[in-house]
Specification:
CATH topology of the largest domain: Rossmann fold
Protein name: Molybdopterin guanine dinucleotide-containing S/N-oxide reductase
Number of strands: 29
CATH architecture of the largest domain: 3-Layer(aba) Sandwich
Family: Belongs to the prokaryotic molybdopterin-containing oxidoreductase family.
Mean pLDDT: 97
Strand content: 15-25%
Keywords: Metal-binding, Molybdenum, Oxidoreductase, Plasmid
Number of helices: 25
Largest sheet: 6 strands, mixed
Cofactor: Mo-bis(molybdopterin guanine dinucleotide)
CATH class of the largest domain: Alpha Beta
Strand order of the largest sheet: 5-4-19-18-17-6
Bound molecules: ligand MGD, molybdenum atom
Organism: Shinella sedimenti
Low-confidence stretches: none
Helix content: 25-40%
Distance between the termini: 43 Å
Length: 759
């Protein structure tokens, strides 16, 4: 009998009559991801957490004991009952002594698919049941965008729902200009579960219909070869300068769409003096941009003319805003598209962005799926998620965010379920110093990740393969009855069972469980969703039928979608959710914040570190740390599929032949990559798909430092910069980073997946 499971990488099938079931891609998926096939691989078992474990000094001497030994001493395994008592006692004690605003429960991370066993919902609901916690806002994905976009065009979620569908792009777009490609490796995933993978097929169809692709940026392997893109080498983090010059040329040619600017936007007249240099004496001409970007000015002029003459869409990868002043890249891309005046026309306008996930360009509706309520959080304090080390290092200090001045709380306890800060955060050595601040760190994870190894209390969680759940992601096409495939590993329990056990000891069990067990919750959440969807004319079978049938195909949205079509036709009747209801080329709100690093219109700022800097050493290289092709973040890094992308067990550093030659290093040599923040080893991969002066290490290699702090495995976050994108967004700025690369004789093998010593 065919059964199903959902994962971020897609839906997989298995035969429940097999004694050891194997995963197969969903038969109807036109472009399945290989990543998820490895979820049951036995290689993953080496790093599974078997039993609740407490760091030795913490257990023997109490909370706060020897925080500098986190990650460096053995754990003592305990029974669940003892673990529940210890956690409950410590939570009560911290709340009594310091209050709930001493608990950081932001718990950022992707965890697993499945709407009920969604780790963040579980941990947030539990912490709310005990009086609340300090939360986070935004994401590492789109930290800057989450703050800037609502001021200028609408929320990230609104825009995601509106992206023009792939069929329309294939039919109508003539020129697809993308900054940062459209990486199909990234489109393997959607948070909560990709359904049919549509980006690869979408691009192929566009290529078949003769769309011309121009890929601007430091890499060219982020757009399928079949697109036959023209690659314009542009220095990392200099995209805004190039966009400004395109805008300058379009204006100089009098090719900007005055009617569209007048009807659908506000503030072009306030942006224009900046563009022309009337304010700062610097006209943003192609010659000006050429010096900053390395792109010949003639090419900029020609491209501007081509864009104005033909049906053009401007796309930006999310990585552009994961950089210092990343807000500007999105603002300027939308400003440029507004000047072209094709927003709301089929195949024109902008994308923010096509490619980062399977979602954008989806023909499916935005519907909120089964939702396990997180309840209300009485604590008001929050941080933008990427400011965690700042918060821990500077309790009581103030910081600006979206026009307000806020205060960092004084954190005594961190509770993490479903994320891996030692994967996702920048400047891991700095995080290591900050990580010593709280007296207690509690982590739930199926695996001995770098974060689990550095916690005080580690509670073993089941994987999605080991429990029943409901799979659904908004704008994807399926509801999935996720059937348990294997028994839980060792003593692992679901987050729900763990929190129920702790809640019981804290006297809030009924509040947390509402008297339902996990099976009862599944049917309850499903029926609740079914009733909501019925009101929107979406019919689904009852829970029993759904559970037996395994999949519900939600079908596609009725008609092809064109972003902002209705808005364009009548902006007064279909306003955007911005203060003016129009696209804000100038934002009075942002201008009123009076920020030196984010004025009222898009502008160019030199990033803290980049190749154009006069301070950059001649042999410095710009390090990009993109998303890994063979895993999702740190998840499944131990799988054979991820291992096949490494050399000598180490992550690769992609490098231009000229840079390798200048350093005397060859293909597959081990090198040391370093800067003032940290050092790691990586294996050289020489390719002409990355421009000179730029190197790239994908994220995801489990952090594995030796005694000197040298990471042996190739984790780029030992090198990245931990600053906010700007005082507006305070997002993650990982793509702003200079490094040095040199040959090394150190070939010590990494051993990242080994469990810590257990007593
Ligand atoms: N340098 C650099 N750094 C980056 C980025 C970059 O571009 N460059 N990108 C950033 C981005 S966009 C993101 S989104 C982050 C991603 O960062 P994270 O989302 O933190 O990374 P994951 O590896 O997905 O972590 C998920 C963790 O949840 C665990 N898990 C899975 N299922 C469950 C469950 O049911 N319960 C519990 N308790 N745990 C579970 C997994 O084992 C894993 O340890 O990384 C960011 N970091
Ligand atoms: N397989 C896989 N897919 C994933 C993920 C994963 O871990 N694995 N993570 C998912 C998540 S959480 C997210 S947020 C998305 C992220 O999606 P993105 O942020 O779009 O992805 P990245 O791979 O970080 O970067 C995309 C491309 O931009 C290039 N780039 C970097 N800096 C610059 C720059 O300054 N200018 C220009 N022009 N290009 C630049 C990078 O080299 C890369 O080729 O991906 C999602 N998809
Ligand atoms: Mo992300």
């Amino acid at each position: 009998m065919t059964r199903y499971t959902a994962s971020h990488w897609g839906i997989y099938e298995f035969d429940e009559t097999e004694t050891s079931p194997k995963l197969r891609p969903l038969r109807s998926d036109p472009d399945p991801s290989m990543i998820g096939l490895y979820q049951l691989d036995e290689k993953l078992l080496e790093s599974r957490v078997a039993r609740p474990a407490i760091r030795k000094s913490w257990l023997e001497h109490g909370p706060g004991a020897r925080p500098e030994l986190r990650g460096k001493e053995p754990f003592v395994q305990v029974e669940w009952a003892e673990a529940f008592n210890i956690v409950a006692t410590e939570l009560k004690s911290v709340i009594k002594e310091y209050g709930n605003s001493a608990i950081f429960g932001g718990s950022y991370g992707w965890a697993s698919a499945g709407r009920f066993h969604h780790a963040q919902s579980q941990v947030h609901r539990f912490l709310n049941c005990i009086g609340g916690y300090v939360r986070h806002t935004g994401s590492y994905s789109l930290g800057a965008a989450h703050v800037i976009l609502p001021h200028i065009a609408g929320t990230v979620s609104d825009l995601s729902a509106q992206h023009t569908t792939w069929d329309v792009l294939a039919e109508h777009t003539k020129l697809f200009v993308t900054f940062g490609g459209v990486p199909t490796k990234n489109a393997q995933s959607s948070p909560g579960g990709a359904g049919h993978h549509r980006v690869g097929p979408g691009l192929k169809e566009m290529a078949r219909k003769g769309v011309r692709f121009v890929n601007i940026g430091p890499c060219n392997d982020n757009l399928d070869a079949e697109c036959h893109a023209e690659w314009i080498h542009c220095r990392p983090n200099a995209d805004v300068a190039l966009m400004l010059a395109l805008a300058w040329q379009i204006h100089a040619d009098d090719a900007h769409d005055r009617d569209f600017l007048a009807r659908c936007t506000v503030g072009f007249e306030k942006f224009l003096p900046y563009l022309l240099g009337e304010q700062d004496g610097i006209a943003k001409t192609p010659e000006w941009a050429s010096r900053l970007t390395g792109v010949p000015s003639k090419r900029i002029v020609e491209l501007a003319r081509e864009m104005a003459e033909t049906r053009t869409i401007v796309n930006v990868a999310w990585s552009l805003q994961r950089a210092h002043n990343g807000e500007q890249a999105f603002w300027m891309a939308i400003t440029l598209a507004a000047m072209l005046g094709q927003i709301g026309l089929p195949g024109g306008g902008f994308g923010v962005g096509y490619g980062p996930m399977n979602t954008n360009g989806s023909p499916h509706r935005q519907l909120s799926g089964p939702t396990f309520s997180q309840k209300e959080n009485p604590v008001q304090d929050y941080i933008p998620c990427a400011r965690i080390a700042d918060m821990l290092l500077n309790p009581g200090a103030t910081f600006p965010h979206d026009g307000k001045l806020r205060t960092y709380p004084d954190i005594q306890l961190i509770y993490w379920a479903g994320g891996n800060p030692y994967h996702h955060h920048q400047d891991l050595n700095r995080l290591g110093r900050a990580w010593q601040k709280p007296r207690t760190i509690i982590v739930h994870d199926p695996f001995w990740t770098a974060s689990a190894k550095r916690a005080d209390i580690v509670l073993p969680v089941t994987t999605a393969m080991e429990r029943d759940d409901i799979g659904y992601a908004t704008q994807e096409g399926f509801l999935v009855a996720m059937r348990q495939i294997v028994e839980p590993f060792a003593d692992a329990r679901s987050d729900f069972d763990i929190f129920s056990g702790i809640a019981e000891r804290m006297g809030v069990q009924h509040n947390f469980t509402e008297g339902r067990n996990d099976t009862e919750w599944l049917s309850y959440l499903y029926e609740d969703m079914r009733a909501r969807w019925k009101k929107r004319d979406v019919d689904c079978p009852d829970f029993e039928t759904f559970w037996e049938q395994g999949l519900v195909d939600l079908g596609e949205h009725a008609s092809p979608r064109i972003m902002f079509e209705a808005f364009r036709s009548d902006p007064a009747k279909h306003p955007l959710k911005t203060p003016s209801g129009l696209i804000e080329i100038f934002s009075g709100t942002i201008a009123s914040f009076d920020l030196s690093d984010c004025p009222g219109h898009a502008a160019w700022f030199e990033p803290r570190e980049w190749l154009g800097s006069t301070n950059a050493a001649p042999d410095a290289l710009h390090l990009l740390s993109d998303q890994p092709a063979r895993k999702l973040h740190s998840q499944l890094d131990a799988s054979p599929y991820s291992a096949a992308g490494k050399v000598g067990g180490r992550e690769c550093i992609y490098m231009n032949p000229a840079d390798a030659e200048a350093r005397g290093v060859g293909h597959h040599d081990t090198v040391e990559v370093c800067n003032g923040r940290g050092r790691c080893l990586a294996a050289v991969h020489i390719t002409d798909q990355i421009m000179r002066g730029v190197v790239r290490i994908s994220t995801g290699a489990w952090y594995d430092p030796d005694e000197t702090g040298l990471d042996l495995h190739g984790n780029p976050n030992v090198l990245t910069l931990d600053i906010g994108t700007s005082s507006l967004g305070q997002g993650c700025a990982a793509q702003t980073c200079l490094v040095f690369v040199r040959g090394t004789t150190n070939t010590r093998s990494p051993n990242p997946f080994k469990a810590p010593e257990l007593l």
